């Protein structure tokens, strides 16, 4: 069985440690020393993923590693921040499954590499499987996207497609294990919209990532902005294969309530729509208008029934 320090050295220490940009002292000391870019604001967020709550206990280790980082990076995307560094706290039931640890580390490091995010420290301990990831990014002053900027008359828009996370989980729970299936890919390997967040600086009036479900996260944005919204649910962009997997009504409910999509939900002044679409099209990403913010409280245009989105203390596997 590996000790904590052997695990860190073998699976989570870069070679050489501290070689990443902005890291003056990296993995291996009591603290990491970072040198943020002068004049930038530091954006920081943390998420914890627990086996059996946030992902299935039998999920592939490479997907667990990827997801643990992706869900935290998605918060930086929603702020329009450029990812820089991350910390990881890993709780393991055992420290002797080298194959699982190697796959987990491979999934985590692959997303680090793809997003230019440096793992600069963390902790390993024993217990039920859980992964806490703190991410740090940079954003210029007054350019951060927040939940509080939507105004009546702004458009409600979403990037990409919705319901894929819920659809992938449903397939997994039915016993589907073809990880190449588009919906399983959306669930097991979500992509944080970091480049989209950067592209939307100066255009979007508000933003939030869709982690708990469209209506649940829209509610957070409405509360922060002090506005309401009128939706046109027939315009919801649904993930490829979702209707086939869940049926028309199931797909609609997944689009409205399903979590784990990690798309961006935006407030967008109408005169910024064409430029926003052009910038996202250059990234190969669609932008769909699904309604408009209003001065009426609440959400108009949809009937909210059943599950209202992921709740962290309600039990079960998200969404």
UniProtKB/TrEMBL annotation:
Substrate binds at residues 54, 260, 310. Mg(2+) 4 binds at residues 30, 45, 75. One of its GO terms (molecular function) is thiamine-phosphate kinase activity. It holds the Pfam family AIRS. Mg(2+) 2 binds at residues 47, 75. Pathway: Cofactor biosynthesis; thiamine diphosphate biosynthesis; thiamine diphosphate from thiamine phosphate: step 1/1. It catalyses: thiamine phosphate + ATP = thiamine diphosphate + ADP. Mg(2+) 3 binds at residues 30, 75, 209. It comes from the Bacteria. Mg(2+) 1 binds at residues 47, 123. Keywords: ATP-binding, Kinase, Magnesium, Metal-binding, Nucleotide-binding, Thiamine biosynthesis, Transferase. Its EC number is 2.7.4.16. ATP binds at residues 122-123, 147, 211. Transmembrane segments: none annotated. GO terms for biological process: thiamine biosynthetic process; thiamine diphosphate biosynthetic process. InterPro entries: PurM-like_C_dom, PurM-like_C_sf, PurM-like_N, PurM-like_N_sf, ThiL-like. Belongs to the thiamine-monophosphate kinase family. HAMAP family: TMP_kinase. This is Thiamine-monophosphate kinase.
